[in-house]
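Q:
Just now I want nothing more than another pair of eyes on a protein record. Here is the record:
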Amino acid sequence: MELPKFLLGDNTDFPDDIFVIHLDYPRFIINLKDDEVEFLEEPEDLDEAELNQVMEGLVSEANDFYDREVKRYED
């Protein structure tokens, strides 16, 4: 089975939060309400500077993904 790069998630216990789940390496969940990131696996092959650079791009991609999905839903 081929999985998408991102998934949207929500939870009734957190009604104001929107989660984007990143399924490629490094796997993580980002809460778009406050951009808090929780890693599902620690990226061991990246030093802190590399990880910060990679995550900056991935957080931007997650936000773009969410914006596209909302637009598709509204259309």
Observations:
- The mean pLDDT is 93.
- The longest helix spans residues 48-74.
